[in-house]
Amino acid sequence: MKHQYDIIVIGGGAAGLTASGVAVSLGAKTMMVEKAKLGGDCTWYGCVPSKVLLNLGKKVAISGKPVNWQEVRAKLDTIRQDIYEEADNPEKFREMGIDVEDGEAKFVDRNTLQVKNGKGFLREMSAKYFVIATGANAFVPPITGIDKTPHLTNHNLFEIDELPKSMIIVGGGPIGTEMAQAFQNLGTEITVVDMLDTILSNDHPELTPILKERLEKQGVKYELGAGVKSVSGDEKSVEVTIERDCETKVLKAEKLLIATGRRANFEPLNLDAAGVKTGKNGITINNKCRTNVRNIYAIGDVTGRYQFTHMSEHMAKVAVSNALLKFPMKIDHKHVPWVTYTEPEMAHVGASQKQLDENGVKYETYKFPYKMIDRAISDEKTIGWIYVYAKKLNGKILGADVLGAHAGELISHYALAMKNGITLRNMADTIYPYPSYGLGARRAADQWYVKSQSTGVVKWIKRIFGYRGPLPDLSNPDKIV
Description:
By secondary structure, the protein is an alpha/beta fold. The chain is built from 15 helices and 23 strands. It has helices spanning about 15-25, 40-45, 45-65, 70-90, 90-95, 175-185, 210-215, 270-275, 310-325, 355-360, 375-380, 405-420, 425-430, 440-450, 455-465, and strands spanning about 5-10, 30-35, 100, 105-110, 110-115, 120-130, 135-140, 165-170, 190-195, 220-225, 225-235, 240-245, 245-255, 255-260, 260-265, 295-300, 335-340, 345-350, 365-370, 385-390, 395-405, 470-475, 475-480. Helix 1 runs parallel beside helix 9 (about 310-325), helix 3 packs antiparallel against helix 4 (about 70-90) and helix 3 (about 45-65) packs parallel to helix 6. About 45% of the residues are buried.
C-alpha cells in the first residue's frame, strides 16, 4: 500500500520537533501536525517562562527595587517569541522539507489520520509510521470547590495581568518550588502546601531540607504534611482549607496555583480506532518507544515516563531510529538527569541512594562540600554538597546528587561520565581549571582515592594533583584530615 507520507508526527513540542527534524534528515517524507503553536509547553508554559521569572526574580532580590509587572510580562513575552521565531517557527521546518499542518488530529485507523483545522476543514492523510508527541496538561486534583474557584496552573500563570500580593501554591515538586522562589523574589508572599513532609520528594532527603531552609530565609512559608480539604474564592481572593493530624487550618491569599503534576494528553486522538493501548499514566510503550501497534510510536510526556524536555528529545531519536532505520536503539533509563533551577540548584542523575539500597547494590558515597570549593567561596555561594555513589573497587559511578550553584552544569559531568564508563579515578586524574565549580567534581572524585588508598598515596595525590588545603573525612564531612 502506498502512503502519502513515510512518517507523520502528531505534536509540535520538544518531542515532536526533534522527531520531525530527525526524520526529514534521514530522507523521510515527513509531516508534523500541531493544533496550537509550535514549541509546546517548553517554550510557552514551562521551561522557558519559568526560567525567565527565576532570573528576573533573582535580579529583583539583588537590587531591592519594586517590581514593574508590565515590564516583567513584556520581557517574558519577548523572550518566548524570540525563541519561537528562532527555533520553532513553522516556516523554518517547511524550509527543511517538513509539511506542517495546523489542526487537531485523530486516528481513523492505524495508517490514516484525520486533521481538523480551526475553520472546521477536515483533511485525511496516510503514513507508514506515526509518532505521537502530544505532551501533557496540568493535572488538577479533585479538590472540593476547585471547579468553582479561580485557580492558576502553568498554562495560565505566565499570562496574569498583575503581580499578586500573595499566592498559595499547592505542590512542593519542581514547578511549585521554582515558582515559589521566583514569585517570592518578585514580591509575592508565598505559602506552599504539600501532602508530603518534604519538598522535591525525588531528590536526596539530606539535601532538600537545605534548599527548603534557603527558601524559608527568603520568605517562603511551608505547610507540609497537610492535605487540601477544600478551596473557595473569587478573582480577588481565595481560601484554602488544609488538614493535618485531624486539625484544620484556613489559608488566605489573592491567588491559588495548582502545581500537582501533569497528565498525559491523548484523549482527542481516538486511539481506539488505531488499536493503541493506554495505561494509567499515558500511552503504553516498550523501550523502543513503540506502542502495541507496530507502526505507531509515542514519545515524551504523553507516555507518562519522563516529563523532561531532554528526555522527550532522547525518546524522539529512539523512536525515529527504530521506525526508519530499524536500528535497535532503546531508551536510556540509567543515565536520566534532572535539575530544579532554584538558587541553589538541585540536580540528580542515575540511581539514587534509596534505589541502590533497595536493590542491594554495594557502593560507597563520596561527598564534597561547596564550602571547600574556592570558586564558590569567592562567589559567596557556599551552600551545597556534591554526593557521588560509586563502586569502591574501581570507582564506577552509579549516580550523583548535587545541591549548589551551577548544579545543573556539574551534573552534566556525571551524566557524561556514567554514559561513557568514566570512573572517579579517571575524573581524579583529569586536570580541571582553577578556580572553577567543575573542580568541585574532581575533588569529589579525589575522595575515591582518599577512601581507597593508603595515607602515603593520599599525600602523593595532594602533592601531584595540586589539592589545596585539607581533605574532608567522609565518615564525618564537617571534619577535615
